[in-house]
């Protein structure tokens, strides 16, 4: 059910950025993102009784697809709470995998409250997108594949961050084998709650909820469990402006022929915007997802139809 996705490197990218970068192409994972790893891990841990009553999750799309797909494969039913304005391709795929989608207004409604109410009313297991140890362990398997595949002692890891599950899982793996690897979260500039929280050493919430191009990363604050793990691991935060995110998407297409959604390209975007701390370093980053509507992708990259 889980692909061992390829690890990629580019002589030309490394030369321009004066760094050695290893990319883990989770945009090629089944369902189009790393989220299937955590969803599969959490659903695999359910009891037979819990599988009979089913699961519920809330997500803007990638976790939704992961839970829907894993539920179908592992023999349980899924209800997914998604925002009305989620990317159409993510809604469509979630439904195609067999889940029932319940919509909410992200500007007015509380998705976690909706999900919790469904879980209580229908006795379904709530599969959170990040604040769940089984989800965190599952997300860490991407980094585990890399350290088992290649003998590279990374100086830095730069990993996309919404609630912090991928960063926490990756950090646990890397710190166990490369003790001096510096861990960084990667976020869009206007949704850099982890970057701010690490500076304060306490959870900081984004108050101005103006949504941007990285729909998968627009969570207003770090998770309680994930933040404790990431803070304990000494993780720091980086962020990138939209122009660097779009530049990263273009580079990844030109170099690897990969379509990567904005949230999936944020690690490379943060390297582009923070070149001074990345030079002469061996860097690990994850291309976390590729679920983006073709018209939206072309619009962001300035590609004309036809």
> How are the strands ordered across the major sheet?
1-2-10-7-8-9
What is the C-level CATH assignment of the largest domain? Alpha Beta
Helix percentage: 40-55%
SS field, number of helical segments = 15
How do the strands and helices of this protein lay out in sequence?
Elements: E1 7-8, H1 11-17, E2 20-25, H2 35-44, H3 48-53, E3 55-58, H4 62-74, E4 78-83, H5 88-96, E5 100-104, H6 111-122, E6 125-126, H7 133-139, H8 141-149, E7 156-160, H9 165-177, E8 182-188, H10 193-200, H11 224-232, E9 236-240, H12 242-256, H13 266-273, H14 275-278, E10 282-287, H15 294-301
Parallel strand pairs: 2-10, 3-4, 3-6, 4-5, 7-8, 7-10, 8-9
Antiparallel strand pairs: 1-2
Helix pairs in contact: 2-4, 2-7, 4-5, 7-9, 8-9, 9-11, 12-13
């Amino acid at each position: 059910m889980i692909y061992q996705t390829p690890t990629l490197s580019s002589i030309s990218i490394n030369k321009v950025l004066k760094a050695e970068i290893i990319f883990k192409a989770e945009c090629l994972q089944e369902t189009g993102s790393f989220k299937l790893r955590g969803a599969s891990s959490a659903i695999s841990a359910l009891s037979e009784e819990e599988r009979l009553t089913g699961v519920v999750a809330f997500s803007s799309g990638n976790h939704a697809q992961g839970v829907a797909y894993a539920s179908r494969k592992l023999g349980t039913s899924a209800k997914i709470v998604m925002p009305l304005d989620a990317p159409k391709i993510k809604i469509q795929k979630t439904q195609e995998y067999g889940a029932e989608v319940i919509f909410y207004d992200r500007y007015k409604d509380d998705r976690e409250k909706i999900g919790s109410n469904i879980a209580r009313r229908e006795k379904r297991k709530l599969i959170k997108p990040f604040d769940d140890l089984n989800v965190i362990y599952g997300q860490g398997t991407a980094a585990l594949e890399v350290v088992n595949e290649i003998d590279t002692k990374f100086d830095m890891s730069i990993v996309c961050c919404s609630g912090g599950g991928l960063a926490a899982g990756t950090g646990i793996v890397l710190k166990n084998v490369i003790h001096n690897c510096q861990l960084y979260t990667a976020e869009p500039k206007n949704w850099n709650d982890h970057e701010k929280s690490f500076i304060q050493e306490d959870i900081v919430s984004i108050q101005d909820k103006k949504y941007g191009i990285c729909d998968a990363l627009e969570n207003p604050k770090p998770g309680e469990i994930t933040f404790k793990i990431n803070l304990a691991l000494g993780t720091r935060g980086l962020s990138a402006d939209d122009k660097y995110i779009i530049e990263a998407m273009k580079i990844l297409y030109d170099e690897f022929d990969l379509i990567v959604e904005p949230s999936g390209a944020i690690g490379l975007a943060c390297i582009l915007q923070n070149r001074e701390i990345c030079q002469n370093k061996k860097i690990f980053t994850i291309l976390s997802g590729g679920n983006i509507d073709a018209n939206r992708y072309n619009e962001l990259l300035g590609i004309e139809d036809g």
